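PROTOCOL LOG
Step 1. Enter all chains and additional molecules of the complex.
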Amino acid sequence: MKTLRTMYPDSNLELLMARYQGGDFTAATALIERLSPQLHRFFIVQFASRRDADDLLQETWLRIHKVRHTYRPGEPVLPWFYAIARHVRVDHYRKAIRTTAHEERLEEMSEVAAIPGQSGRADDLEALLAPLPESQREVIEMLKVAGMSLEEVARATSSSVGSVKQKAHRAYEKLREKVSAIGLRKGRSGGMS
Amino acid sequence: MRDREMDEILELAAQARHDVEPALLQRVAGSIKSSMRPVRPLPPTWVLASELILICAAVALAGAARAGFYGIEKMSVLERSLIFPVLGILGWVVAAEFVSEMIPGSRRRIAPGALLGIGSLALLGLFAVLFRDYRTNDFVSAGIVCLMTGLLHAVPTGLVSWWLLRRGFAVNSVAAGLGGGTLAGLAGVTMLELHCANFQALHVLLWHTAVVPGSGAAGASLAWALRFRARSGAPN
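Step 2. Run joint prediction.
Step 3. Record the structure below.
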């Protein structure tokens, strides 16, 4: 699988980050181009609309730019980026309490989810992760899309490795149930036709 | 279904290409271009934590110097050799965690709330072992004075610590406030141990130890209020 980690090894990102801190605009642009798709997807997976995700991405980069001195060379890069993105997302949702809309969207997405992961469509992951609680969804996104390690996810979410493991385990249990149920439904409807 | 199969499904779903509009990326790059300049990264955690410890020690010593070192003078060698090293170790651990809270993506060994609980319990245990005078003379009046003195010394410690870490960025400001408040509370307790010569067990157990959770709660509340104010003021 091509995760962010395999496409851009940490050393490259660290190097770019060091140049960015040194005032190199080319390095900043390279980081924006490389990391934005993953960060954008991180927001989409959390049920943000495309437009919201665009806004959140922009806000995240502004925040990153403002606090770029807080990244310390030698530390893992991705947890630093994701911790800030996560903060921006939480801040955004606290500002605009849209619980009802959020729940409606969640139900909607659960209903439309077909057998995920088999069509290769861009919305597959979002549909597959739809029934999971927010905390489990972000852990799975970071582990599977960004290719971060348990330790890095723990850093990004300000929690312990044990807690990340537990969330991933619970998420897998729920996903397994969902995929099995969809498979069973598909099998039955296929048999009847 | 096994974990391996679940992994494959997730990996397949994650492989789908996710593009962001080039115009958006250009907008993002354009918005930071005008303010591009070199920045100096923050120093390592141990440097910042050491500076915080120095601030705590300075405030506690200055407070005791002004009010008198009656407590440490009355203490036995055993009491001195246990209380101050324990306060130092707790201070170091809390300072390191406070620094971690101010730097995104840092390793968190222990949550600030748990640290506050463990720190308070450690002090309670230590004081319960060392102080065996169970009289309660002027329990409330003397206690309030000590509590207020401890908290008053926590305030400058908290403010100076916050100023020292002003270049940091707390992704969870309430947790950072709790960490900073706990550290400031430990400075307050240190001042009390240097100054207060009232060794009645219940006095020390309740009124001295209460400075730590009191200061921690004040730090968290202040951070929450500031965050709330910032959000209310910011346009949606």
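Step 4. Note key features.
Chain B touches chain A through 52 residues (CB under 8 Å).
Residues 139-164 of chain B form the longest helix (26 residues).
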